[in-house]
Amino acid sequence: MDWKLSEEFVTQDGVVRWDRRGAGEPVVLLHGTPFSSVVWRAIAADLATDHEVFVWDMLGYGQSEMRSGQDVSLRAQGRIFADLLAEWGLVRPVVIAHDFGGAVSLRAHLLHGADYAALALFDPVALAPWGSPFFRLVQEHSAVFERLPGNLHEALVREYVRSASSPGLAQEVLDELVSPWTGEAGQPAFYRQIAQADQRYTDEIEHRYGEIALPVTVCWGEDDEWIPPARGEQLAAAVPRSELHLVPRAGHLVQLDAPGPVLDLVRRFLSRHAGHVRGATRDS
Q: I need a surface site. Which of 1, 125, 259, 265 has the fewest CB within 10 A?
């Protein structure tokens, strides 16, 4: 279950860990919350056979720095992502984003000038209202939840993450997803990112989805209980010339629930837009 991000990018609020695998046309993968880049491991490994794949853990997530006082909001993550693309020298990569990563990629594009050859959104946070009753309860009382005994906190996070999968997660996968959120740094970081998850950061851009001119595909797990597939239909209707694909027998963690179908969707998407990706680095 080894997944190490070997590179660092320093931001004003801490260090972001990232890595690249393979060679070829660039593809960037974005994770959501409360996850990390590890959710893309199987997809990244396959794509790296003929693409240069960039992965990163958002600030305050996974292997990136977690500390008190950080701005880990969608506002900060969108700005960091635009800065990362510049750091990597990527001008028009293909971007594939999940959950909060969808909002991050949309904010970077619409507010910070990040350009993509194409954008694939998997079960993204993009349309109001969002946030489950559990999410909102924790958000309103994050300081209380942060003081939970460690074993109760871990049990809560474990059940929360488990609910993102429709067929269920293997024990070692569940352990890996939960692990970053435990301990002295991880427990407060879990509640910090929920406390800062403000819907206004998608409200700021939702009315601009009609401006998006790049190729977009929207993919959704048919059994997603976190964000219903009907939101996928709404988003596809809001983004001009976008497509909607439903993934059977998959919940919110669609790339873990149905890696084969997701990889097929990604491969078809990349092959359709491969000609637009050439020359996507500053050095080319």
A: 1
Q: What is the pTM of this model?
A: 0.95
Of 131, 95, 128, which Cα lies nearest the Cα of 217? 95
Other Cβ atoms within 10 Å of 198 Cβ, number = 14
Contact 119, 109 (CB under 8 A): yes
pLDDT tens-digit profile, the chain (284 residues): 589 999 999 999 999 999 999 999 999 999 999 999 999 999 999 999 999 999 999 999 999 999 999 999 999 999 999 999 999 999 999 999 999 999 999 999 999 999 999 999 999 999 999 988 888 899 899 889 999 999 999 999 999 999 999 999 999 999 999 999 999 999 999 999 999 999 999 999 999 999 999 999 999 999 999 999 999 999 999 999 999 999 999 999 999 999 999 999 999 999 998 654 433 444 43
d(CA 181, CA 212): 35
Residue type, position 48, single letter: A
d(CA 66, CA 89): 26
The stretches of the chain forming alpha helices (DSSP H) are 41-47, 74-88, 100-112, 133-140, 142-146, 150-162, 171-178, 183-195, 200-206, 229-238, 254-257, 259-277
